[in-house]
Every structure is written in C-alpha cells, then in structure tokens.
C-alpha cells in the first residue's frame, strides 16, 4: 500500500505528488486520462502572484449585468445552469462585502507572497528554469475613469505586499511598442512572471514524478471509500479500489463529487475560460499584458502569443462555444494591430472556481487521512507548488508555516 494516493494529474495534483515524493513518501497517482486535454494544459501561463484580491470585487454584480449584454464582453451565462449554480452565485456576492473582501485578500496574499519560494525549487528540479520568464507584466487602461476606479484596489494590493508602479501613456508605448496607442495608463507589476508553455510544464513535472518513483494508474475514480479507517481508498470504474495511507483529492473542477462522497460539502463551479494561440503572430510582446477593462490577457509564450480570458458559467458538460475565443481574438487584433492568425489554435478550459476565490487546501473534517487540494480558480498554475508544499506538510504531520484555516472546506458547511 502506498503512503499517498493522489487523484488528478493536472498541475496541482502533480505538484502535490512531487512534494510528497521529495518527502520520501511512496506515491500512486491516478488520472482518467494522463495525455488528455486539461485545464492545466491551456492556461495563460502567468505566475500571477499580484492577484491577491478576490474576483468578486465590490460593484461587480452591477458591471456583470452590462457585460452579459455585450457579445464581446468578458462574461457569459447559460441560463439553464443558473438554478443549480444559485448557491454559488449568492456566496460569490457575499464575498464582495468589505469585511469578507479584505479577509479573502489577506488569505490570497498569504499564498501568493510565498509562491516563488515554493515554485523555483520545483522548476529547478524538473528542468523548467530555462522557460521561466521573470519580466513582470503590465495592466493596461484605456480610460482615466477605469484607472481611477481601480485606485483603492491597487492601494490595498500594495498593503498586501504587491510591488507596482504606474506608467503613463508614453511609458506604456516604450515598454510594449506592439500595442495600439490607446492606453492612457499602465501598471507595471514587477513580480508577475510567465512560463513558456503550460502543457510542456505538465509533461516535465509528470516525467519527473514518474522518475522519482510514482506509480501512474489511468482510470476514473468514481468515489472515495473511507470505511477502512486507516486505509482510505479510491473506487475505480470497475469497482476495484486503490488503498493508501492518505489520499489527496486534486481533481480540479471535478472535485465536488469526490468530497461529497465522504460527506464534505463544497461550492465549486467550472468558470470556463477561452483562448486562442497564434503560433506566428508577426509581432512581439516582451511580457504578459492584462487588458483591465476587457478582462483578458495576452501572453508571449514560446509557442506563440496566447490571447484569452472570459468567464462562462455553463457547467462541466456543455460543449465549448468558441465564439468566445473569436470575440477575444477580435479584441486582441484591435489592441495588437497587425497580429497574424495563421495556424491559430482555439481552446477552452474549466477553472475550478470557488465563490470566494480561495482554494480548498487541507484535511477533510470528516476523514483526517483525506486531504483536499483543488479550487484554485484563476491561480492554479501560480499556486501549484505552494499547494504541494502545504499538502506535504500535512502528509508528514508538520505544522505548515502558512495557517490553513482560511482554505478549509469547513467554510462551505451549511
Ligand atoms: C483560460 C484560462 C486561463 C488561465 N490562466 C492562468 C494563469 O495565467 N495562471 C494561473 O495560475 N492559472 C491560470 N488558469 C487557471 C489554471 O489553469 C487552473 O487553476 C489549474 O489548471 C487547475 O489545475 P488542477 O490541477 O486543479 O486541475 P486540472 O488541470 O483540471 O486537472 C484535474 C485532473 O483531474 C483529473 N480528473 C478529474 N476527475 C477525475 C476522476 N474522477 N478520476 C480520475 N481523474 C480525474 C482530470 O483528468 C485532470 O487531469 C487559467 C485557466 C483558464 C481556463
């Protein structure tokens, strides 16, 4: 019986497996499709450590209603999905109250401010340093109105430890000459970085985890079985079980059903995001750029410029609606004039989103040898190694240097 069974081989599960192996534990890793597409393959590649405020910013509900009417807007909703998602939306609204907003921001900063301490050793070990670009990022504003409206949030971020400085129109042009000359303001984010190709990182990490001795099992886990107290198990499609001393659930947007199978309630939805990768863009960006008003980004990956973002609530099963990728590309072409789209590749992924933007990291309150590591929303790549380090602390009974109270699944108890 292995010490640890990790369920889910996206970037978070792999980071947990890597950290456990580094502790000298034996690991089995199960995924329904190791080579298949997953959220961790197609994301924007940003190490977005400056994103220490929740998505549910005060006033968002009002803006959201305007966005829903805009076909190029950043938000889409499948109305059929609304009834089942209602508790999630209500909790999302609650997250924007001033007290809760601040509390969540502190908890996000506690993770984000240690990201490089955890990520760099993992990147070094898997051979990912040569495609890790610490060049900062720029948030761009087209209007004075939007720039000044965000002033309080930038002030709070500085209090939380985020290093930033304002750029004027001329400075934005100097930093990124490929941008259309329409941005009146920019914010330079020193500590943001990006990687060359998220899919390649997943492959490198999986290769390393394999080389460190993990056993890889390709199968679907249908539920957890904790009836044998000291040997929890993952039950597979054919009814067989894999037992381990401890189980880590890292199945991204699909994690709620497994948590519920041991009696833990969670509010988790798929916040579907879209992008297009342009392999021969014909223009160059030096760093990731974030279009503040339109809520999308462009990242200069090694495999081309990736333009993406959007939030679509339509559940885990609905087919992708690539009109959302088209809409983002239309905006991208407006702001990056001359960008070429030959060979463009469209993609959709499921962000594992909690309503308060905080991940679920910690032991199950019902079953102490089941550990959760999911719900990272927009920040799964950013926080993967930190999550792995915290999970490893729990696996070896060490007190984590970051308190896990705020990330506990207990917060979703009715
Ligand atoms: C458009 C877009 C852009 C993004 N940009 C960024 C960014 O720039 N920076 C950043 O930090 N984050 C970004 N994210 C978020 C990030 O991609 C996710 O938070 C992260 O990939 C989640 O990783 P994960 O390992 O939890 O989930 P996943 O990558 O979804 O992996 C979950 C794994 O679990 C497996 N699985 C699920 N259920 C079962 C089961 N029952 N049995 C067996 N296996 C199962 C799946 O096959 C999958 O391999 C972005 C997301 C999107 C959609």
TrEMBL record:
Gene3D superfamilies: D-Amino Acid Oxidase, subunit A, domain 2 (3.30.9.10), FAD/NAD(P)-binding domain (3.50.50.60). Residues 3-394 form the FAD dependent oxidoreductase domain. The keyword Oxidoreductase applies. Keywords: Oxidoreductase. The keyword Oxidoreductase applies. SUPFAM superfamilies: FAD-linked reductases, C-terminal domain (SSF54373), FAD/NAD(P)-binding domain (SSF51905). GO terms for molecular function: oxidoreductase activity. Coiled coil: none annotated. GO terms for cellular component: cytoplasm. It holds the Pfam family DAO. This is Amino acid dehydrogenase. It comes from Caballeronia mineralivorans PML1(12).
